């Protein structure tokens, strides 16, 4: 069973039918995990377990980040019992850029616990292709951070979507919907023609059609267009949603092999719990 399935099974066992019922602290207590809030040095959350009880200490932050940290530690407790953890979960992109399987699994567990597919999916379907306006609404409803919500929406597997974060002009992390062909590996440096580039320089948020070659180095990209949504993140970052609106992009085969993704170390493997 994948971490996401484990989390959603728990939601189903509790008989939860609306986002307001997603009381992550109550889930934790039920599993024998006590939650404390305290300042922590160099990390956002810790887990200390002994026999059937454990204490998770969460660094105070905003509600979305605190909830994700609790879900993450509950994931460790459910899946990696017997071990202690010091985690940096304040920003899920941090884990996305790391190589630790345990951390990725705990993040996947948290994402599914806080945004279970049966509750999120109908909302995504009702808006078609969510932009940041919708992402912000989902964040509000599920009490999750914008970053965690973007990543979860990409992984819900019905959208032709790549989510990325650039710091300055450099790619920091990205996450793709499972069906997006690997040949579409987004550029590591922001293209000056992208809206994201302008958002970093001047604006808060922009969206519009773009030639796909602005986002992809692939030789075939010049035949297509994509839909780009870009919004300023924190600390000099820009969050980008790229929709492969051209159906052919989702089926086009690569005409040359691409090894870049594997060597980059964090492509496509974020949430393996696809259903
Ligand atoms: Zn962790």
UniProtKB/TrEMBL annotation:
<dbReference type="Pfam" id="PF06114">
    <property type="entry name" value="Peptidase_M78"/>
</dbReference>
<dbReference type="InterPro" id="IPR010359">
    <property type="entry name" value="IrrE_HExxH"/>
</dbReference>
<protein>
    <recommendedName>
        <fullName>IrrE N-terminal-like domain-containing protein</fullName>
    </recommendedName>
</protein>
<feature type="domain" description="IrrE N-terminal-like">
    <location>
        <begin position="63"/>
        <end position="152"/>
    </location>
</feature>
<dbReference type="InterPro" id="IPR052345">
    <property type="entry name" value="Rad_response_metalloprotease"/>
</dbReference>
């Amino acid at each position: 069973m994948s971490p996401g399935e484990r989390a959603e099974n728990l939601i189903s066992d509790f008989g939860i039918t609306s986002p307001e019922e997603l009381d992550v602290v109550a889930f934790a207590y039920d599993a024998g995990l006590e939650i404390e809030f305290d300042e922590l040095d160099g990390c956002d959350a810790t887990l200390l377990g002994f026999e059937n009880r454990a204490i998770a200490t969460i660094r105070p932050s905003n509600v979305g980040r605190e909830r994700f940290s609790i879900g993450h530690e509950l994931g460790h407790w459910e899946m990696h019992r017997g071990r202690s953890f010091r985690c940096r979960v304040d920003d899920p992109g941090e884990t996305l850029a790391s190589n630790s399987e345990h951390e990725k699994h705990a993040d996947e567990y948290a994402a599914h616990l806080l945004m279970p597919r049966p509750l999120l999916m109908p909302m995504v379907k009702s808006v078609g292709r969510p932009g940041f306006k919708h992402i912000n609404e989902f964040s509000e409803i599920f009490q999750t951070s914008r970053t965690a919500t973007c990543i979860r929406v990409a992984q819900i597997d019905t959208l032709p979507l790549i989510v990325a974060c650039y710091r300055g002009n450099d790619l920091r992390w990205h996450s793709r919907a499972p069906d997006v062909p690997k040949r579409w590996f987004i550029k590591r440096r922001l293209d000056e023609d992208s809206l994201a580039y302008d958002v970093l320089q001047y604006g808060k948020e922009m969206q519009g059609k773009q030639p796909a070659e602005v986002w992809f180095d692939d030789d075939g990209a010049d035949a297509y267009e994509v839909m780009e949504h870009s919004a300023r993140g924190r600390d000099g970052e820009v969050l980008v949603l790229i929709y492969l609106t051209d159906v052919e992009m989702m089926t086009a085969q690569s005409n040359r092999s691409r090894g870049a993704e594997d060597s980059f170390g964090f492509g496509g493997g974020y949430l393996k719990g696809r259903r």
